[in-house]
User: What shape does this take?
Amino acid sequence: MEEPLLELKNVTKEYTIGGGLGLTERKTIRAVDKVSFTILGKKPTIVALVGQSGSGKTTIARIILGLLEPTSGEVLYKGKDTRLWLKKDKKTYRHNVQVIFQDPYGIYNPFYRVDRVLFKAVKKFGLASSSEEAHKMVIESMRAMGLRPEDLLGRYPHQISGGERQRLMLVRILLMKPKLVVADEPVSMIDVSLRSIFLNNLQDLKERIEMSCLYITHDLNIAHYVADEIIVLCHGRIVEIGDAKSIVKDPLHPYSQNLVNAIPIPDPTKRWKDAAQIKEVTFEELRAEQGCMYSHKCPHVMPMCKKEVPPLTELGSGRKAACFLYPR
Amino acid sequence: MSSTVEKQSTLRRSLLGLATLLKTSRMLRVGLGILLVLVLLAVLEPWINNYRLGGHKSIEFGIYERHLPYSYEHPLGTDLFGRDILALQFTGLRYSLMIGAVAGSIATLIAVVVATTCGYLGGKIDAVLNSATNAVLVIPALPILIAIATYVRMDLQLMSLTLAIFTWPWAARTIRAQILSLKERGYVELAKVTNFNNLEIMFAEILPNLAPFIGVGFSYAIIGTILAETGLRVIGLGPGEIPSLGLLLNWAIGYGALSQGRHQMVLAPTTFLVLIFISLNLINVGVEETFNPRLKKITGM
Amino acid sequence: MRKTDRILQVEDLRVYYKSIFGDVRSVDGVSFSVGSNEVFGIAGESGCGKSTLVEGILRVIMPPGYIKSGKIMFKEKDLLSLEEEEMRRLRWTELSYIPQGSMSSLNPVLKIEEQMVDAVTSHMSTPKEEASNMAISSLKEVGLPLEVAGMYPHELSGGMKQRVIIATAILLKPSLIVADEPVTALDVVVQKGILQSIANLRDIYGITVIFVAHDLAAHAQIVDRLTVMYAGKIAEIGSVYDIFGDPLHPYSKLLVAAIPSIEKEAVQGIPGLAPSPLDWPPGCRFHPRCPYAIPVCPHDEPPLKEMSPGRYAACHLLG
Assistant: This one.
């Protein structure tokens, strides 16, 4: 049996705040709490990690990329722990596990031309045997992604738009052909009219270089459009997993239902019928929560929800939910 | 957006960057202007004095009559040794700026090395070096410098080195702070994911963006060293044959210039010193304002 | 819309920025009217000039920006002819403004109630006690619990802060509130709540709201009429049903088609790039990206024509 491409086992990340000089109370925050999921990767697939602010999704991304260490738990790439990869075979890991960051403005060093991010990738991973070959590769890859090299090569970051900068990141991915790409909200900072071009490019890339992608977003519309599978995160825990279409058509977990319900449909004949809950949970209540993180707002809350953490239960056809409404 | 791709060399880009900087900050323009004039005077001093003094050096005794009043030939008059006072100022300016530049450069070099090591590596190294920096900052430099200068015979190089050792912490702090901020940038993270090692990130990603701050650090270092040197000279320490502005002040006080009504002997070196500090400070504030536009509203320029 | 129903009428407003390259024409001839007791949306992507437009209307443009020309009729008064003192009196009491990112500009060292009381007493000579009561009832109107009055901004979540901002904006019972991107930084569930609160301002309190946002889906949920802006000008104005059901301007058509939705299978983007205000394309500004462009488009700017009552579009294809 082949190893899954990516596997997270009970990954937890805690932060402690306060406690210095004994003046403030030492508090622990669990940004990520025993998160486990698998991306098999046998077929190229895009898995969306959907969560609102405070869900821990960016923390998970950084842990997978090796930019952050988990407090406990393991991240396995092709069966081997990331920490081991970074120690013994960093180059291979970096070559095969890549990133697309959210902010198209911060990822380019203003001192250099934009080509540098492409040529550096080629150089660092030995993708070309000469600078002529490197040049040819870069130009071909840009054209393959629908960009005109004449318009972009030689420019400085402030001379090109946010949308173009993000698409150049896709060119970078095309050059490196990683097996796994972690995309952290790549379109949230570019205009709507350009988003679909990027998303279509991403899906195209997936097929072309046979890569899988962990797509992190807060926007269920985008997750539904681009992903094959969706993982829903709530305050550091996974509450539901399933294929993208089913989760949106028929969400099982009350949190997912609330999320789907709150999506604004761009159609004035399909306005929200119910009022949103205004009641909000305090930080302290969440931190002290022993049971389900959604118990404070859940319309179906039962006494046991506050006592135990509901386990992620298999419900058939690849669907999983962490809710006592769906017992084993 | 124009459709022509501009291939600009780094030099052209740096010059353009400088031009924009100049356009944005009036303080910078004024400061740079004053400094340029002073540097020009200092650099051209040998020729200026050669021309005016007919081949003699400004510190030579007895070229002219003693105690001459203001005149076209001697705009600041002559001193009790028959030396043209204005010529002395130019020489003083030259040496003060030279010491400032040399000591300032050494100090900045030390600062850059220390700041980049602890700023980028962080952790224990940062903690240790940071404490060391703060320790040097806290130690009263002037008394120690005085002590050293009293017992050790200083020549120009030793003096520059000693001054540098006490001035680098100021520059190091600014640079380290900027490095800590730059470390968090997206392009640094992208570099990490592209398998850059720490050294590469430090030099290729962070250092180029540090340039203006190293410049400011250098500026502060020059101010610090000239200040320290002047302080030492005024109380009579340091190599007596090198007439920096501080030494000129020392001479003026020693010759009783004020009681003799020869105020220009004190006012002239002081004015030049003040101009040096004003110009450097204007440059610093101008650069900081440009990179931190919020400050502009406070200073109102 | 009858003339007497219009609470705001903007005529050919131009807001420019002085720069070394010449005038940057951010808002370049915009005309529209807003009826009382409606939510009017201003939609468009980054750089289209929508924020500058409302800043111009409220006369909060800072140099190097300036209002080049135009008329802004608010309840039969031309705002551009008013003295700054009169304008200041109008703000808060008749016209309220919720700028972009305002929830981060709450004073961190003052409790919520104090800040709201300050807002009242600095505009009217109301005694503190009465101002306090106004603050409390305002908070209730936006659905916040009483405890919030005694809390500090950092103790509140993003959604609650935004509600405080809305509560402060309605304190002096204005007739018109302008909200610029009030839900952009918020989670989708919180966003729904805030959008509904804004709709309530119209439904329950009879306040007119100008809602500026780039998210068309948000517009679809709460606005009555909206305008789509492109490159400093208006592309189309119409009721929300018209704009989404039958958009006339090619840009509106493509923009509506570009929004991903759980109800849609495929999504089309708009090729090309948004133009820069330093370099607006000649003729119709959308022509370089328009799939339906005809020979006249690069030469003549299409005027904004009324296609049917209340429905305007600026496109040569519409005759």
Notes: Confidence is low (pLDDT under 50) at residues 1-7, 294-301 of chain B. Residues 201 and 242 of chain B are 44 Å apart (CA to CA). Chain B touches chain C through three residues (CB under 8 Å). Chain B has one domain: 2-299.
